[in-house]
Amino acid sequence: MKAKEGVIDILNKVLTADLTAINQYFVHAKMCENWGYERLHHKVRERSIDEMKDAEKLIEHILYLEGVPNVQRLNTVNVGEEVPEQFKLDLKAEQDMLKLLSDGVVHCTKVGDFTTRHMLEDMAKDVDDHIDWIETQMETIKQIGLENYLAEQIKKDG
Predict the structure, then answer these.
(1) pTM of the model
(2) Residue ranges making up the domain that contains 81
(3) Does residue 45 form part of some domain?
(4) Which residue in 113, 117, 130, 150 is a FRET match for 157, CA 20 to 30 A apart?
């Protein structure tokens, strides 16, 4: 099926953002693991894997629309040196992704590509969930303090 005008470009922009997020979240997860924050490591690693699944869907959809997935392009991978900075950078990445997806939904509606629109809307719901989780963590840190928050992220012995 041939893509409607501009759809492949939008999908490749979303793919670039996903590929960037995969790397950013994976590094953040490994840093948390190295610091001993097992609970946080698992949650952030899970988000990286969610982004991989999204990238796979995007690649499949681009190929279905007879396009070529651009997997060579990445945006800047921003690495936080401490947990609060990681949350701040991840929140920015998710907010940027939500804008990109929203713009894609509008474009797909305009050109009549409702299958791609639906896919982007589903991805936007997941991004909303990620944003909510990050904002909750940031608020929790504000309320209970960083040390108390991080103490809860350490793996508990059996």
Answers:
(1) 0.93
(2) 7-153
(3) yes
(4) 130
